[in-house]
Amino acid sequence: MKCPGQDSQYWTENAIFETACPKCGAQVEFYKDDTSRRCAACGHRFVNPKMDFGCAAYCQFAEQCLGGLPEDFAGARQALLKDKVAVEVKRRLRGDFGRIGALTRAARHAEAIAISEKGDVAVTLCAVFLRGIGKDAAASAEIAAEILGALQAGPEISRQVLSLIRAEAADKANFNRESAIIHDALLLAELEASLKKKKAAAAEPGRIGELTTPTSRDIARRLLETTMERAQEAQP
Fold first, then answer.
1. Where are the domains of the chain?
2. Secondary structure class of 16 (helix, strand, coil)
3. Given phi > 0 = left and psi -120 to 50 = alpha, else beta, which region is 44?
4. Phi, psi of 10, rounded to the nearest 5 degrees
5. How confident is the model at residue 66 (pLDDT cuts 50, 70, 90)?
6. CATH fold group of domain 75-199
7. How far is CA 7 from CA 18, 29, 47, 130, 195, in A?
8. Given this model, what pLDDT does residue 78 score?
9. How many other β-carbons are positioned within 10 Å of the β-carbon of residue 20?
10. pTM score, two decimals?
11. For 34-55, how does the pLDDT look when each residue is reduced to its tens digit (9 = 90+)?
């Protein structure tokens, strides 16, 4: 059985169309079920702009159904993986809302830092969510490997995530970019929680020096400024 979206018996007159090559502007003819085509004028291969690859992001039979998936699609598959990991970790933590809240804060900061510092967002967020799933790093890595396997993560992203989970966070000299992002995201999550509880920022500025990236330090300063402004507004 073929996916109805790709089965020609369901096609209309719009099933064959032309679109401009993004590199040279020449017209390239596409059939609805073409994942990509090569421009006859300049040789550039690009993705079918009208094809919806949404189901292929999670379907294990995507490559058999659609043929060779374009390289551009790898990012979409990884983006969906981080969301699946987040859901699975939250499911396993069940009613532990304290840990879920801490992980959610850390993930929010990690995503912002990774985007700004050009880190690998999918790898970083998967590692942030999975690193605290067990009682220690070894247990977390074992559970993380199980979860990544069940979610059919690729071998390379699994290797990177597990390496980050197992890494010792104490030696900043050996941090790679993703290690630094995770370190900063966890510290920012702690800072944010601390500021919300104390409702004062007097003791916190020194912690900015522990952060490793410019983006992280900017986020910390904004957190401190917001807390101080709220404290001033609350004064009679």
1. 14-72, 75-199
2. strand
3. beta
4. -100, 0
5. low
6. Hypothetical protein af1432 (1.10.3210)
7. 20, 19, 19, 39, 56
8. 65
9. 12
10. 0.65
11. 777 889 999 988 877 776 555 5
